[in-house]
Structures are given as C-alpha cells and as structure tokens.
C-alpha cells in the first residue's frame, strides 16, 4: 500500500493500536521504508499526545492510547514532557478569547488563559504589576507589558506580521477607496532570536460611542500591540481593523482580513499592530467587514502614548 | 575522504572498517550522494519502529539492526533481493523477536495510576518545574523567529478551528497541509530533544 492511500484516520488507529495484526504489520513496514509516511505518523502522534494531555480524546481512544502508553516507555516520555510543559510556571497574558490551543497550553497554562512563551520570570510579574498600577481604572482594559526577557508571542493569526505578512489589502469594486498614501508598510521582521515584547488592549462594545478614551503606552521596547476587538456584529466573515485619524479619516494602519471568533454571543477579532505603525495621540480604531469592505461596523477612540 | 565528517558522526558501535562502512552508506543511498543523511533518516525510522513496539532501548535496537545489515553486506558483498530500507525492516523484525525472547520488554512499563497522577507529581516538584522553565526559555531561543511563528500558528486553536487554521497557514506559506505538519513536527522534535538534554544537564 502506498503512503498516499493511507488516511489520517488510519494512522490514528495505527497509533492507538486499533488496527488488526496484518494492517499493523503493513504500516510497520511502511514506517521503516517510507520517510513521508514516517513524517505523517510522527505529526499525528504529537497531535494524539496533545489531545491526551488536554483531555480531548474520547473514552475509547483514551483507553486504547493508555494501553499503548502502558507498553511504550519512549512514548510515555513524550507525554511526560508535554504534560510537564503544561504545568511549568510561565507568564500569561489575559485575552478575551476562550479558545486556547495545545501549544498555548504548553506555554500558556490553564484553559481561558492566554498564550505565553515562557518562563519563569519574576521580573515580568513585577513589571506587569507596575503597569497595572499605572494604567487607568478602566477594568475592561487589558494591558500588560512584557519586557524583553521573556518571549510571549501571542498566537494571533495576523498576516501583517512575520512570515505571513504578504496578504494584500483587498481592492474592492464597490467604490470604497481607502486613502493608502500614508499607510505605513509593515516593518520587516528582523532575523534574530531575541524575545519580543508587546502590550495588549481589549476594546469592547460598552465603550463604543460613550466618548471614553482608552490609553495605551508604547515604550521603546514594545514591538507590537496585541489588540482584541469585541463586536456585537454577528457575521461569519472576515474583518479588517484600522487605526487612523478620528477627524480626517486618514488611515495609519490597516490589518489584513482576519476571521473573528465567537465568544458568549459576541465576535472577537484579534490583530497584532506593529508599534511603528501606532501614531501618538488620539486615534480611532475602526472595524469593518472585509469582504466586501463595508461601512464602519464599530469605532473606538484610543490614546497612544509614547 | 569526502564523507569523513559524517563517518565520525554516524559510525556504528561495531568496528566496521572505513571501507565497509562507506560501502554500507553507498548501498543505503541507492546511487544518491546523501552524505550519510539517508542513513540517519533510516536510523530514525527504525527508532520510531522500536518505540512503537514498546522497546525500552529503541536506539540500541536500531543500531543493532544497522550493524547486522552492515555486517551482512560486508560478508556477501551485495544485497539485491530487497531495497535497503525493506531489508533493514526485515532485519529489525528479527531483532525485535530476539528482544522479546530475551524478556527485556516490560509489559506494564507504566502503571495506569502513574499516568493519572503525572500532573499531581509534577505539581509537587518545584525544582523540576523551575528547571523545565529555564530549559524551555533556553531552547526557544534556538529557534528562529519564523520557526516560532510557524509552530505557534500550527498549534493555534482547538479541534475544528485548529484544522481550519492549519489549512489557512499552509495556504499562506504556499505548501500543503502535510508539508506544514512535517515542518511543525520537526521543530517540535528539536525543541523536545533540546528540553530533555537541557533538563538532564540540570538534574
């Protein structure tokens, strides 16, 4: 049998020991003789381990995988490493989304807590407390400064950053023509291994239209703003987030289209805004539907401090 | 010798001569000059095989398999009946059977209670947690930013959301979802290896 003919479901059954002996032997041989198949098995095994650690396997899979673990010390070691990583102390960043992937669990901890890359950083906790004490009293704002000693990269899919930043801004056919002349181009990702720091900000519907202005301080070490925008707009499509002048409508920065996530009846859109794109002063944050680009769905005012 | 660096890196425990080992590498390469990479890839697959079989020393058994094949090739000069990988697999089956007969395999390597109590035991061990976090920090810096981005994107979300997101990421990178899975898997294997080595040094 060829690698291409074997489904992921079959590989999972193979890994949990659910195949009969002839099928198992056939896949054993393929495991040794076919590198592509071996790669697929390794990837599926990690997914299986992750789901085991997260308690997401159904009862049958759980029982069968436990049997596999019972006789395989090497796979037990992988599970132990994965489990220990989920309980290692780390810095967490509050975010409004409830969905936490396994790697977020690996580096970010318990359910409903967000992502982090690591470590123990007492200094991060101390700086977070300082920022918390110096921010304004709006309790719905989430802003924690993560100093460069830890790398807390939030796993927000933001095509305007990093290696995925080549998604072009959509050019609509319906007459909506944003003023792109002063848009800042995304800063090229530097090739280095130093940790990245960011601040987080959440904008939720109650602040809209009240004239309330949230502040966020962008220090020199901060590389990006992790922005979470909640909206009551119910749509399954994609959104675009813009930062711009509240008076003239000029746009400083626009995200690529991103998909929102449902949370308690609202939609949450998460984007990562490079700090170099944030203009000091009072800016408007506008949310639009991406396809087709629409009128403004939501608008908030934010004060950018540097 | 062009392969001398690799020869030192991949030399088996059995004292094969330089010439016989070079012939063995060439036989595994099947005409492509992989500079020992095919040998290492085959060895990794054999290790995966013995791991799946529940062997507690999969690396040793993989090395034993390759040594036997090397020796056989040395004795007969050529092996044409099977492809190199297939022949190694057949040899591995014999090695596994001998391993079973030797009684070295432990059926109950881990008690079910141990599996359930992993988290509880780890919670009690602050020093281990501390070491692991330090190792995690250290090992993450060995990844490039692109690798970190990729692995976070790959593991973002849960269940259906994760699957959809992976398809999107693969599309953006211009690769198939399978290729993306393989890249993420290799990065994670490196990270895991690094963490294990690091936490072993700290103990």
Plain-language structure description:
The complex is a heterodimer of chains A (306) and B (203). By secondary structure, chain A is of the alpha+beta class. Helices cover 29% and strands 22% of the residues of chain A. Chain A has two domains: 3-84, no CATH class; 134-305, no CATH class. Chain A contains seven helices and ten strands. In chain A, the strands form two sheets. In chain A, strands 2, 4, 5, 6, 9 and 10 form a six-stranded mixed β-sheet that branches. Chain A has a four-stranded mixed β-sheet with strand order 1-3-8-7, with no helix packed on it. Chain A is elongated. Chain B folds into two domains: 16-101; 125-202, Arc Repressor Mutant, subunit A, CATH 1.10.10. Chain B is built from eleven helices and no strands. Chain B starts with a helix and ends with a helix. Residues 1-8, 108-114 and 116-124 of chain B have low confidence and may be disordered. Classes of the chains: A alpha+beta (306), B mainly alpha (203). At the A-B interface, helix 2, helix 3, helix 4, helix 5 and helix 6 of A face helix 3, helix 5, helix 7, helix 8 and helix 9 of B.
Topology at a glance:
The complex is a heterodimer of chains A (306) and B (203).
Chain A: H1 8-15, H2 21-33, H3 35-53, H4 59-71, H5 73-87, H6 102-108, H7 122-134, E1 198-203, E2 213-217, E3 224-231, E4 238-244, E5 251-254, E6 258-259, E7 261-263, E8 266-274, E9 281-290, E10 293-305
Parallel strand pairs in A: 1-3, 2-10
Antiparallel strand pairs in A: 3-8, 4-5, 4-6, 4-9, 7-8, 9-10
Helix pairs in contact in A: 1-3, 2-3, 3-5, 5-6
Chain B: H1 4-10, H2 18-29, H3 37-52, H4 58-76, H5 84-101, H6 112-116, H7 118-124, H8 126-140, H9 145-154, H10 159-173, H11 177-202
